[in-house]
Amino acid sequence: xxxxxxxxxxxxxxxxxxxxxTPLEQRIWRICWHYTGDREAASDCGQExxxxxxxxxxxxxxxxxxxxxxxxxxxxCCTDWLRKKKRDRSESIxxxxxxxxxxxxxKAGTEETVVAAEEKRQLREMIARLPEDQREALVMTQLEGxxxxxxxEQLGVSEGTVKSRVNRAKARLKEWxxxxxxxxxxxxxxxxxxxxxxx
Length: 199
Fold this sequence. Notes:
Elements: H1 3-10, H2 14-21, H3 25-36, H4 39-56, H5 66-98, H6 111-129, H7 132-143, H8 148-155, H9 159-178, H10 186-193
């Protein structure tokens, strides 16, 4: 990363910000796609990521690698989108269900297609509910295909820690999936998060 570009961008230089972010745009979009599974949503979340990075750049103190910070901003944008989508869907359909009507999905195809789409949706929701450190490690190494060693450097932790976080994330996802595909109660996630990393 060009430190001079960063300093100029932090002072409000939009041209410098553009140069700084251009190499990251494709990765931001891929991250948003992995979370949302929707091209339009990925584009919207990518734009929101850029906006949040621009607004927060002046307060960034370099506690982590710049790319890692941008990744976290993107992940948070997607998590917010997933929560809003779930809430909006629930609010819009509830009055119909109370009236005894359960509308069919207009995009529904074969049963296998519907089941596969639902499983993907649930998996994305589960990934969004993982503790941030586990979610980062999982998406970077398993979805983005970043080598463990490189992910460790970007996250500022040991390679063993990254592997431990990925294994915990996989174990948690497997536990949720074998529980009938339902997410564990929020309190369980919070309790686990409080344990911290003990690689």
